[in-house]
Design brief:
The structure is a single chain. This protein has three domains: 45 residues; 60 residues; 121 residues, Alpha-Beta Complex (endopeptidase fold (from Nostoc punctiforme)). Helix content is 41%, strand content 23%. The protein contains five helices and eleven strands, in the order βββαααββααββββββ. The chain is rod-shaped.
């Protein structure tokens, strides 16, 4: 008899099968079920063991983050669009303002030019009117012959020399730009008269009217220079010879004449001597 005949067997029943199932789903949460079932053999059946594990919900957090990101992107796009519109509006306003300024400057320049032209025409018309009046008066008084007088002057010294020279030129021709001895223009006659006493005056009326010192028409002395127009911008000059009279080269119609100051009141006078 074997020594092991009555020793009971200690082997465990062999499992005939083993199953493992894992189920997981993600949709509003993740539910996983792990089932483990084991069978020990035909004689000893084991009860299945089931364990449930609940996973955390992820989709809600992801959806919120995506929505916030989309909203932020839309806000940035809206801000950029608004900034672009503001820049375009500012650029357009700047262009309009620049054009308006250019138009205003052009208009002001045109008005300034028109005023200058109008003043020049008015000055020319005034000179023409004076010339016409002098011609008419000369004709009504018998021309230059009636104005040739033998005025005596109380002037002495250099003033007498200037006055006598001017009176000696009465009746000679007026020629624009002439400085003697057979013809003069107004400033040419004054320059020639003062040259007799060694004084070299400027050539034109404008400069002669600003030479020396200004004197009142009520305080004239023989030899003073009379001018018509403004000081420094005179258009005619003559020599005061005393007795309320002057000698001047008036125009091509009258030539050099002696006239009363009441015939054509001068604007002012300067004294050189």
């Amino acid at each position: 008899m074997s020594h092991t005949a009555h020793i009971p067997s200690h082997r465990k029943p062999r499992r005939s099968a083993s199953k493992l199932a894992l189920r997981a789903g993600v949709a509003g949460g993740v539910l996983s079920t792990i089932a483990v079932a084991g069978a020990t053999g035909p004689a000893h059946a084991a009860e299945p063991v089931t364990e449930t594990i609940e996973m955390p919900t992820l989709t809600t957090g992801l959806a919120s983050t995506a929505a916030a990101s989309a909203e932020a992107t839309q806000q940035v796009a809206a801000d950029l669009q608004l900034k672009a519109q503001q820049n375009a509006a500012a650029s357009s306003a700047a262009k309009v303002a620049k054009k308006a300024k250019a138009d205003a400057d052009a208009k002001a320049e045109a008005e300034k030019k028109a005023k200058a032209e109008a003043k020049a025409k008015a000055d020319a018309a005034e000179r023409a009117s004076r010339s016409s009046a002098r011609t008419t008066l000369s004709a009504s008084t018998g021309g230059s012959s009636s104005s040739t007088t033998t005025s005596s002057s109380s002037a002495t010294g250099s003033a007498a020399t200037i006055v006598n020279f001017a009176l000696a030129q009465v009746g000679k021709a007026y020629v624009s730009g002439a400085t003697g001895s057979s013809a003069y223009d107004c400033s040419g006659l004054v320059q020639a008269a003062y040259r007799q006493v060694g004084i070299d005056l400027p050539r034109v009326s404008q400069d002669q009217s600003a030479t020396g010192r200004q004197v009142s028409l009520s305080n004239l002395q023989a030899g003073d220079i009379l001018y018509w127009g403004g000081s420094g911008s005179a258009y005619h000059v003559a020599i005061y010879v005393g007795g309320g009279k002057f000698v001047g080269a008036q125009n091509s119609s009258t030539g050099v004449v002696e006239r009363s100051m009441d015939w054509d009141r001068p604007s002012g006078a300067v004294r050189v001597l």
